[in-house]
């Protein structure tokens, strides 16, 4: 194991072993899936690369988003038992993610980014997003960030 992946990835592995020993099926299955997603990201592309903790958080954020969307889809089609399973997996993943920003904080950061980027309308949305995305990485999904930027640009 290299120095780069001794952090979050190692924590995921240790927690997986603990979950298996405790016979926690949801937690162990979710952590297995998360580690598989991390490994897939490491081998994607032309050469294997070790992911930093920030990269691992990015992978976990994508997986959490999938769970949120699946839960909503299952709820919409009247399958509450499947929605509950997705919510249980999401709860496991959220332990490893940074705390999510609430809407008020996200709106404040978006307003600051608009002022910093000199945005005055929707054509500058891309410039504002470039300023804001690194500040909120892992703390808010892209859709929420874009909505906050739209609100800030429309005021």
Oligomeric state of shown chains: single chain
The helix/strand order is HHHHHHH
How many individual β-strands? 0
Number of domains: 2
What is the CATH class name of the largest domain?
Answer: Mainly Alpha
Uncertain regions: pLDDT < 50 for 5+ in a row? 1-5
Please summarize the sheet with the most strands.
none
Structural class: mainly alpha
The CATH H-level superfamily of the largest domain is Uncharacterised protein YqeY/AIM41, N-terminal domain
SS summary, helix count: 7
Portion in beta strands: under 5%
CATH topology of the largest domain: Hypothetical Protein Yqey, Chain: A, domain1
The chain-level mean pLDDT equals 89
Overall 3D form: globular
Percent helix: over 70%
The CATH architecture of the largest domain can be named as Orthogonal Bundle
Rg measurement, Å: 18 Å
Structure write-up:
- The protein has 155 residues and is mainly alpha-helical.
- It has two domains: 4-94, Uncharacterised protein YqeY/AIM41, N-terminal domain (Hypothetical Protein Yqey, Chain: A, domain1); 103-154, Arc Repressor Mutant, subunit A (Orthogonal Bundle).
- It has seven helices and no strands.
- It is globular and about 55 Å long.
- 21% of the residues are buried.
């Amino acid at each position: 194991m290299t120095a780069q992946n001794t952090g979050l990835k190692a924590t995921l592995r240790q927690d997986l072993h603990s979950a298996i020993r405790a016979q926690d099926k949801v937690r162990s299955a979710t952590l297995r899936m998360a580690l598989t997603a991390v490994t897939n990201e490491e081998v994607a592309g032309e050469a294997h690369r070790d992911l930093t903790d920030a990269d691992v958080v990015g992978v976990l954020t994508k997986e959490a988003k999938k769970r949120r969307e699946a839960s909503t889809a299952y709820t919409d089609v009247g399958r509450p038992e499947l929605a509950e399973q997705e919510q249980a997996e999401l709860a496991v993943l959220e332990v490893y993610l940074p705390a999510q920003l609430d809407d008020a904080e996200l709106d404040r950061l978006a307003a600051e980014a608009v002022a910093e980027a000199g945005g005055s309308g929707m054509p500058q949305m891309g410039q504002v997003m470039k300023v804001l995305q690194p500040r909120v990485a892992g703390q808010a999904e892209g859709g929420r960030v874009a909505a906050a930027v739209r609100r800030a640009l429309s005021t």
